[in-house]
Write a structure and sequence with these properties.
about 0% helix; 12-stranded antiparallel sheet
Length: about 290
């Protein structure tokens, strides 16, 4: 089935202090809703050569996502206060986001007879005899999550061809609906968060009359409440499914180098190098 999508953004931009201060203020809205359920079919490995002896799984899932946000960001050139501070700029931004995800799922299994008739086998996530799987096997859940996100950075241009910078940014990824849950407590999962620290420089220069470029940056990410998916099983009901957990936190750090030299107008030689190092700080999957 198709999805209906509506999004709108209202934004105001301006400047002050002889254009030494620029700013943006705005709001954002997004909603995605399905026209109907998304239907999927599955079958496990079955040792029988008779189709009627192998159960087929069917799931009908419908998820609606809605997001609202207010934000503001400004860049200030300190040259507005003193000529000696010209080209030293501070950028700061703040965004607050409200997210809502709501979903329904009906999943069951059945045996396909040679005649084409179906014999219901039961709900995928709970036990019991069923006659109307779309109602008896259905569950739903709604999750509301919200979070502030922000960025703060300094950059300085000692010359037209060189910029030094440092910044800190906090990001957020909304939680969601787990359509294959086998427990009431795992039908939704919570947001994840990351804080990014970055320093570097960007430069353009000439080498023996050849136009050149060199950009270098280093970063460190503090990643928390990472969303991880895994299989799940409910012994009490015999239900098989999946779960998404906020199961881990991690540190990711690295360096990136990007360079270019142009010997002639028709020839450009470029290269880049990156090195990453990741450390899983804790996880329910560790053992």
């Amino acid at each position: 089935d198709w999805y209906k999508l509506f999004t709108e953004e209202l934004q105001f931009q301006g400047s002050a202090l002889d254009d030494k201060l620029t700013y943006t203020v705005g709001g954002f809205y997004f909603k995605q809703s399905p026209a109907g359920a998304m239907v999927s079919y599955s079958t496990n490995v079955c040792g029988s050569q008779v189709l009627a002896a192998c159960p087929i799984g069917q799931a009908e899932i419908a998820i609606t996502n809605e997001s609202k946000a207010l934000y503001a960001q400004a860049t200030l050139d300190f040259g507005a206060f003193s000529p000696s501070l010209d080209r030293l700029r501070l950028t700061a931004g703040y965004r607050y986001t409200w997210d809502t995800v709501s979903g329904t799922n009906a999943s069951w299994s059945y045996f396909q007879l040679p005649s084409g008739a179906q014999v219901l086998n039961g709900c995928s996530w709970k036990q019991g005899t069923i006659t109307d799987p779309r109602t008896q096997c259905q569950f739903g859940a709604t999750l509301n999550s919200k979070s502030p996100n922000w960025t703060v950075g300094l950059d300085y241009r000692p010359s037209d061809n060189l910029m030094l910078y440092a910044k800190v940014t906090r990001g957020y990824k909304a939680g969601g609906f787990n359509g294959y849950a086998v427990f009431e407590t795992t039908r939704t999962f919570q947001p994840e968060f990351v804080t990014d620290y970055e320093v570097g420089f960007k430069s353009d220069f000439d080498v023996g009359g050849m136009r050149s470029r060199l950009n270098v940056n280093g970063f460190w990410l503090d990643y928390k409440d990472i969303q991880r998916a895994a299989g799940d099983f409910n012994r009490a009901t015999g239900g098989n499914g999946a779960v998404t957990l906020n199961a881990a936190s991690a540190e990711i750090k690295g360096i990136e180098i990007d360079g270019m030299i142009q010997p002639t107008d028709f020839l450009e030689i470029a290269g880049n190098y990156s090195h990453f190092s990741a450390k899983n700080k804790n996880s329910v999957f560790n053992s």
